[in-house]
Design goal:
Layout (H helix, E strand, L loop, with lengths): L1 H31 L6 H11 L12 H6 L1 H7 L22 H9 L9 E7 L4 H14 L4 E7 L4 H10 L6 E6 L8 H5 L12 H4 L5 E5 L3 E3 L3 H5 L11 E5 L9 H4 L10 E9 H6 L1 E2 L8 E2 H12 L7 H11 L4 E3 L18 H6 L3 E3 L11 H12 L8 H7 L13 H12 L4
Parallel strand pairs: 1-2, 1-4, 2-3, 6-10
Antiparallel strand pairs: 4-7, 5-11, 6-7, 8-9
Helix pairs in contact: 16-18
């Protein structure tokens, strides 16, 4: 019985295939017999395509032209993607395009990969520091990076030459911008604190198409993926627009609480060397202030603040940010000091508890410690990254051993405290 069933199934299959072949031959013969018919469908196709010939001739090769001269002409008329596949094809439509057009029409749409936007402002002799910072970001990061580099005109060629030589990494893009301030007060903004430092205040107004941004000073080094601090954006509540670390953890050595002549955020103020921003919210928000009862937007509040406090501020744009968030504390997310670890955290003993427990995530070498002998551990980290050959692909194993403290004999310098700090740094490396 089973043998008879198998024979029946085989016969049915053969019959089905024969019918398919017969219908295909019939369709071909009908199509070839249509001759010069097809003027109306061609006109209809032109109205769909708007005259741009989208997809025309896709997949047609020289062999097809040689075999069927008439079919070559038809294939160049218009795309099949606008025809229902169950309709009979007009004579001026080339059937060989069906598979190509179906693939492009119904292909899965891939979501674009999120890029981390990183901004820095470089002026004067800050080229080497900035390049080293960018290198540290590339070595450890996971997601692709978009660098926004604001620099003086004379530095642009140097940045372009270096970054173009890294293009083989295919993990970043970059944009170079000139230093720009509002024209009516450009000179006043440029000389505020350090040259170009106040450029960061205007990033939400310049980078209008960027939703979120991580701004860092040139003397920053990443010891973890930039992705980690970027993920803090998801922890913002509905009112928070930016994130910074405290200026000090220990009030007894704090600067703002002892010397400031202007309002500042919290007990010890905040440090703007690492600043995470939701710039869409910053552009939309109306800020409370002590100059008028009317709330002002970001672009309207900066110059009045400078005019009111320019004789009372010491640290320039950072002081202005402290004043803004003093009046709008609900708008600031404060992250721990391990995301902005500075010499201040270890000069007078260790006073960054989070770094003691979990390690240092971002190193901030202010006070020029990368270039003198006051903090050997900071300088050692900087020089190791500066000298790293990024043209050699960095494997996870290499990353893991990159900051092996045995490579640096800090004990011989008689600085046990800095050796301890270095060990804390290396403990945070996630590879």
């Amino acid at each position: 019985m089973r043998r008879y069933l198998r024979v029946v199934v085989l016969c049915l299959a053969c019959g089905f295939c024969s019918l398919l072949y017969a219908f295909s031959q019939l369709a071909v013969s009908l199509e070839e017999g249509a001759g010069g018919v097809g003027g109306k469908p061609q006109a209809a196709a032109a109205s769909w395509l708007g005259g741009d010939g989208r997809g025309a001739g896709r997949g047609v090769g020289s062999s097809g032209s040689a075999a069927h001269h008439g079919r070559s002409d038809r294939c160049k008329e218009f795309s099949l993607c606008y025809w229902n596949p169950y309709w009979m094809l007009p004579s001026d439509v080339c059937g060989m395009n069906c598979f190509w057009e179906a693939a492009f029409r119904y292909g899965v749409k891939m979501q674009p990969i999120e890029r981390v936007h990183l901004a820095v402002v470089a002026c004067g002799e800050r080229l080497e520091e900035t390049v080293t910072m960018l290198k540290s970001a590339l070595i450890f990061s996971i997601k692709p990076l978009q660098f926004h580099i604001f620099a003086e005109d004379q530095l642009h060629d140097s940045f372009k030459g270096i970054l173009d030589s890294w293009s083989f990494l295919q993990t970043f893009n970059y944009s170079l911008y000139p230093i720009t301030f509002p024209s009516e007060n450009a000179a006043e903004w440029k000389k505020l604190f350090k040259p170009c430092a106040s450029q960061r205040l205007f990033l939400p107004l310049i980078l209008k198409e960027v939703d979120s941004l991580l701004y860092v000073d040139t003397d920053i080094l990443f010891l973890r993926p930039v992705d980690d601090i970027w993920s803090l954006l998801k922890k913002f509540n509905s009112t928070q627009i930016a994130a910074m670390a405290p200026e000090h953890e220990e009030p007894r050595i704090g600067w703002y609480n002892r010397f400031a002549r202007h309002p500042y955020y919290g007990k010890t103020g905040v440090n703007s060397g690492v600043m995470l921003m939701n710039m869409t919210r910053m552009r939309r928000k109306y800020f409370k202030n002590d100059m008028t009862t009317v709330r002002l937007r970001w672009g309207d509040i900066l110059m009045p603040l400078l005019k009111k406090y320019k004789l009372n501020i010491t640290w320039g744009d950072q002081d202005l940010l402290n004043i803004i968030f003093f009046h709008n504390p609900e708008s600031l997310f404060v992250f721990p000091c391990q995301w902005n670890y500075r010499p201040d955290h270890c000069i007078y003993g260790s006073n960054c508890q989070e770094a003691e427990e979990e390690g240092i995530f971002i190193l901030h070498g202010n006070r020029g410690v990368y270039h003198d002998d006051k903090q050997p551990a900071f300088r050692a980290i900087y020089e190791a990254l500066r000298n790293e050959n990024i043209h050699q692909k960095t494997s996870p194993v290499k990353k893991k051993n990159f900051f092996n403290h045995k490579h640096w004999d800090l004990k011989s310098q008689g600085n046990e405290q800095n050796l301890s700090v270095l060990l804390k740094m290396t403990a945070s490396i996630p590879y």
